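Project outcomes to date are best conveyed with an example. Our students and postdoctoral researchers have been running inverse folding experiments weekly, and each run begins with a structure described purely in C-alpha cells. The record below, which covers 228 residues, was selected by the lab manager from last quarter's runs and is presented without edits.
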C-alpha cells in the first residue's frame, strides 16, 4: 500500500518527525529500527541537550510528560571558562526570562517514549520494506545509505578528537548548573543530570585528542577520576 510520507530512520528525529506528520492527518510509514548504540555489556549513557522548541514539540506529541522525572534535568545556569583564569561567561535562565536554558534528557528513555507513542498513533504504521510515497524523509543519521544512493554529499570535518562520555555522581549538588571548559587541546563539559542520583549527578562529555581518549578509556575508575 502507498502512503503520503515514508520516514526512513527510527531514532529520535525519525520518530518525532513521523508522529508530527501523522498528527496532520497524513498517512505515514516508518521504516527502520533503532540500532543499539551501547557496546555489549555497557549501559547506554547517551543524553540529548534539548532547547525550548524541542521540549515544546515533545509536549505537543504528549511524549514529554511520559518521561520519568529523573530522565530530564533542567539547566538553569551555565558557566563557560577558558585557558586564561578569570575569563568566563555566565548565562542564566532567570535573566533570559525562561524556565530553563536547556534540558538534559536520557536518550534511551526519550527514544522509548517516542516509540511507545508511535505504536498507538493513528495514521502511522511501521513497515519492514519500502513502500511508495509522495514524500520521503531521510532520518537515518550520518551514515545514511539512502542519502549515499541519491548522491547527496555531506561535509565532514575531522578534528582528530573523540568525546569520552560518562555519568558521574558527586557529593556537591549540581544545582542545575552546566559547566564547560574550553582548553587546549581538550574541551570538558559537565552537564547536570539527575541520574544516577537526583540532584547529584552529571553527564560528562570530554573531547580530547584520539590518543588521549584511548588512554582515558583504558583507565580504571579511580585513575579516571584522578585524571578528571
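After processing, the design step wrote out the following sequence:
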Amino acid at each position: 500500500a502507498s502512503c503520503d510520507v515514508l520516514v526512513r530512520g527510527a531514532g529520535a528525529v525519525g520518530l518525532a518527525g513521523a508522529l508530527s506528520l501523522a498528527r496532520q492527518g497524513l498517512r505515514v510509514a516508518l521504516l527502520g529500527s533503532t540500532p543499539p548504540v551501547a557496546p555489549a555489556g555497557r549501559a547506554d549513557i547517551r543524553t540529548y541537550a534539548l532547547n525550548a522548541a524541542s521540549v515544546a514539540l515533545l509536549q505537543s506529541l504528549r511524549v514529554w510528560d511520559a518521561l520519568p522525572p529523573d530522565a530530564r534535568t533542567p539547566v538553569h545556569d551555565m558557566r563557560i571558562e577558558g585557558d586564561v583564569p578569570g575569563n568566563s561567561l555566565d548565562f542564566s535562565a532567570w535573566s533570559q526570562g525562561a524556565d530553563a536554558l536547556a534540558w538534559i534528557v536520557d536518550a534511551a528513555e526519550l527514544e522509548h517514549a517516542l516509540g511507545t507513542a508511535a505504536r498507538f498513533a493513528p495514521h502511522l504504521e511501521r513497515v519492514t520494506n519500502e513502500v511508495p510515497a509522495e514524500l520521503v524523509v531521510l532520518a537515518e543519521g550520518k551514515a545514511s545509505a539512502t542519502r549515499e544512493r541519491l548522491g547527496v554529499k555531506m561535509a565532514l570535518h575531522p578534528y582528530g578528537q573523540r568525546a569520552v562520555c560518562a555519568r558521574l555522581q558527586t557529593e556537591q549538588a549540581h544545582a542545575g548548573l552546566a559547566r564547560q571548559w574550553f582548553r587546549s587541546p581538550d574541551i570538558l563539559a559537565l552537564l547536570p543530570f539527575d541520574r544516577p542520583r537526583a540532584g547529584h549527578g552529571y553527564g560528562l562529555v570530554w573531547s580530547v585528542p584520539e590518543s588521549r581518549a584511548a588512554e582515558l578509556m583504558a583507565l580504571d575508575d579511580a585513575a579516571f577520576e584522578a585524571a578528571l
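The first helix runs from residue 12 to 23. The chain has a mean pLDDT of 92. The training component of this project remains on track.
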